[in-house]
Design a protein that fits this description.
With 120 residues, this protein is of the alpha+beta class. It contains two helices and four strands, in the order H-H-E-E-E-E.
């Protein structure tokens, strides 16, 4: 019984935290986690001379574990982003609305859509 109560309370806490989070806070949290991944990919490139083929290749040497988005989804990693003419890209979609961001390695910057989504 105690175990079921703990699961219920944990699930309720996650629901409340995600449900009460503004899109601005969600985007900020996702970008912070994304920046951790970007830094790890750059460290990997420096050490091995190429970027990893998967994000799992970063753990545990460069990250203790691969972070997830604020809503618990996986970041989308494309090791050969031919559409963006980039070596690789990292994308997250927002749970709170239909926006998201992609880090494009060629430009070393984030591109978010729509441009003002998450701004309050």
């Amino acid at each position: 019984m105690n175990y079921l109560l703990k699961i219920f309370l944990y699930t309720l806490a996650v629901f409340v935290l995600v449900g009460c989070t503004s899109s601005h806070e969600e985007r900020k949290g996702n970008m912070e986690e994304g920046e951790r991944i970007v830094a790890a990919i750059k460290q990997y490139e420096k050490k091995y001379g190429t970027h990893p083929t998967t994000l799992n290749a970063l753990a545990p040497e460069f990250l203790s574990d691969v972070p997830h988005t604020f809503s618990g989804k996986d970041f989308e990693y494309d090791p050969e982003d031919l559409l963006a003419y980039s070596k690789w890209s990292l994308t997250f979609d927002m749970a709170s609305d239909d926006s998201g961001c992609t880090y494009i390695s060629h430009f070393e910057s984030w591109d978010c859509w729509p441009p003002n989504a998450g701004d309050e």
